[in-house]
Amino acid sequence: MSTDTRPEVLITGAGGSLAQTVIARLKEHYRVVLVDFRRRVRVDEGMASYQVDYNKRGFEDIFRRHEIKAVIHLGRMGLYESTHRNRYNHNVLGTQRLMDLCLKYGVGQVIVLSTYFVYGASPYNPALLTEEAPLKASELTMDLVDSVELENLASIYLWKYPELNITILRPTNIAGPGVLNSMSLMLSAKMVPVLAGFSPMMQFIHVEDMADAIIAAFRQNKPGIYNVAPEDWVSFREAVEQCGSKALPIPSVPERLPYYIAKRLDWKGWPPYLTNYYKYPVILDGSLFRKTFGIKPRRSLDDIFAHYREKKEMGIL
Questions:
Q1: d(CA 234, CA 245)
Q2: Which end of the chain has fewer CB atoms at under 10 Å, N or C?
Q3: What domain range is 60 assigned to?
């Protein structure tokens, strides 16, 4: 029997850059249990690591084997990683299974990573989107249904089962070393498509700052729904230039043309259903998170963009 009395925390999506940063901050004071559906993540001595699908029987075995006190759910399937059906099964049905297991095994806290995509990119969005704004993404494209449904599901459990102490975080674009989301793939490229006549304002948060936000939410345990975003923003074209990339103008009319171009060229960083996010701004009001948890991002936009400039200078693409 182990004599280690540190509480156990389960982290999904453990192989990602954000998760690895969170793990580094927790491992001294907690026994960290790592789960990833893609691969078994290498761990330090004393950690446990599993490769498992949330919808498979082996996932519950982890809860039987460990005394999980909290779950940090970062293991979403990315927008470019698979088909709509597979993403839905993993992100929505898998999250429901996770929540049910948390209830069954008495987990006392759950952090859920959502995304700003749930708001939808629309010319009618207000200048700053608060947490009360409607989630319109699924109305604009069916390819984002899983993102909206994952958060709707987490919200239901948040209000129906207060004993789970659920905190839902909606971050803006996470960027920086090791990040492999669609925006980071775009900014890593030498040539970046931009819609002619459009350059929406955008926000970016460094992966280290996002990890700080998750740790603050975990340690302070104040359930609710929170936007996570800095107080500054920049136009997309300027971000492209600051990252050392060259803008590749794409015709924006007729309206469906950018969609078909993106689909035909199969850009991983710009899947067709994200076209509107490169046309209309989606700017988050992150003041509730800053006020509630008492922290704000420490890395500047230049800190973020410098990473992508350096990658190109070093020939790492």
A1: 15
A2: N
A3: 8-179+203-233+283-299
